[in-house]
């Protein structure tokens, strides 16, 4: 491995455009806050920002590159997790530009459900599975050769305790009552992907986790104001949790379903 560490993270670009970065607390998605946390953590990190909208990504890239707190280097990669063509093109670009990849953070996710508990339509379920499950599956598979060239490849699938079958099996728990069936199924499937990937790849030195970023203020549920009014925490706290995994502080819990602040969830 060269002295640089190459990290790919998808980024919440839409949210960034709503307010200047200096006022990012509580207004940015988890992906963007993770890019900020990692690029300000160490000059040895090169953070590759994945964005499906290149114009939004460019704005983020330029803003971060001009911040005095940014220590590492950054680049931008166009990537739509629902498109095999986009994943193939992005993989080709990464292979042309980098000799290895150290960390892959599969953060992109959607939750187009209303919370009314009705079962989603086929189209809504398909949309969630395309982004939350099929995208991370196909992207990770495509990037295995580049990750294998790292001395310590790490993959983090950003999941949710909403996908925990253990948690919903406790019918008295706060988690059991949340009425987002399609989203919950998609995150349960993502957790199986993590467990499967880890079983298959641990022999080759891969470290793989699911990570729940916690219930934080972002645009995921289109209820930003409600979350702010409830005093829900900023997604910067989620980014710190992801940073700890990247820095190796959770290596002892490899293969697990982690949360912020040392949390470790049941599948
Ligand atoms: N917020 C929470 O409380 C919470 C709790 C548990 C888990 N999570 C998980 O955390 C992750 C990040 O969500 P968030 O809360 O930060 O929500 P968010 O603010 O809505 O950000 C989601 C990001 O995913 C990107 N994205 C969506 N579809 C994509 C696609 N097809 N290709 C590429 N990128 C795509 C969006 O891109 P654009 O910028 O182009 O829209 C956006 O940047 C998700 O996996 C979510 O399930 C969040």
Give structural notes.
It is a single chain. The chain is α/β, with parallel strands linked by helices and 267 residues long. The protein has a single domain, classed as 3-Layer(aba) Sandwich (Rossmann fold), CATH 3.40.50.720. The strands form two sheets. Strands 3-2-1-4-5-6-9-10 form an eight-stranded mixed sheet, with helices on both faces. The chain has a two-stranded parallel ribbon with strand order 7-8. The protein is globular, with a radius of gyration of 17 Å. About 6% of the residues have low confidence. Bound molecules: NADP nicotinamide-adenine-dinucleotide phosphate. NADP nicotinamide-adenine-dinucleotide phosphate binds next to α1 and α2.
Give the termini separation: 33 Å
CATH homologous superfamily - what is it?
A: NAD(P)-binding Rossmann-like Domain
Largest sheet: 8 strands, mixed
Radius of gyration: 17 Å
Ligands in the model, by name, code or SMILES, are: NADP nicotinamide-adenine-dinucleotide phosphate
Write the layout of secondary structure elements.
Layout: E1 5-10, H1 13-16, H2 30-39, E2 45-51, H3 54-65, E3 73-78, H4 84-97, E4 103-106, H5 122-148, E5 154-158, H6 165-169, H7 181-201, E6 207-212, E7 216-217, H8 224-229, E8 233-234, H9 236-246, E9 257-259, E10 264-265
Parallel strand pairs: 1-2, 1-4, 2-3, 4-5, 5-6, 6-9, 7-8
Antiparallel strand pairs: 9-10
Helix pairs in contact: 2-9, 4-5, 5-7
The structure holds NADP nicotinamide-adenine-dinucleotide phosphate.
The site of NADP nicotinamide-adenine-dinucleotide phosphate has 30 residues, from helix 1 and helix 2.
């Amino acid at each position: 491995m060269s002295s640089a560490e190459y990290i790919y993270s998808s980024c919440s670009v839409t949210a960034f455009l709503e307010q200047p970065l200096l006022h990012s607390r509580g207004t940015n998605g988890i992906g963007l806050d993770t890019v900020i946390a990692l690029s300000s953590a160490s000059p040895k990190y090169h953070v590759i920002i994945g964005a499906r909208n290149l114009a939004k990504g460019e704005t983020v890239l330029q803003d971060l590159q001009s911040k005095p707190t940014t220590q590492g280097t950054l680049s931008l990669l166009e990537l739509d997790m629902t498109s095999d063509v986009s994943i193939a093109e992005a993989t080709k670009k990464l292979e042309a530009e980098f000799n290895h990849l150290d960390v892959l953070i599969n953060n992109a996710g959607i939750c187009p459900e209303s919370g009314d508990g009705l079962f989603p339509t086929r189209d809504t379920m398909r949309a969630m599975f395309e982004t939350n499950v099929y995208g991370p599956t196909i992207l990770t598979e495509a990037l295995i050769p580049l990750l294998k060239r790292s001395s310590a490849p790490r993959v983090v699938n950003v999941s949710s305790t909403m996908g925990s079958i253990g948690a919903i099996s406790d019918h008295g728990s706060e988690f059991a009552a949340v009425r987002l069936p399609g989203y919950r199924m998609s995150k349960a499937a993502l957790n199986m992907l993590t467990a499967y990937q880890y079983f298959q790849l641990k022999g080759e030195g891969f470290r793989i986790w699911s990570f729940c970023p916690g219930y934080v203020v972002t645009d995921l549920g289109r209820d930003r104001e409600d979350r702010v009014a409830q005093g829900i925490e900023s997604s910067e706290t989620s980014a710190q949790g992801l940073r700890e995994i990247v820095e190796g502080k959770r290596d002892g819990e490899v293969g697990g379903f982690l949360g912020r602040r040392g949390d470790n969830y049941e599948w």
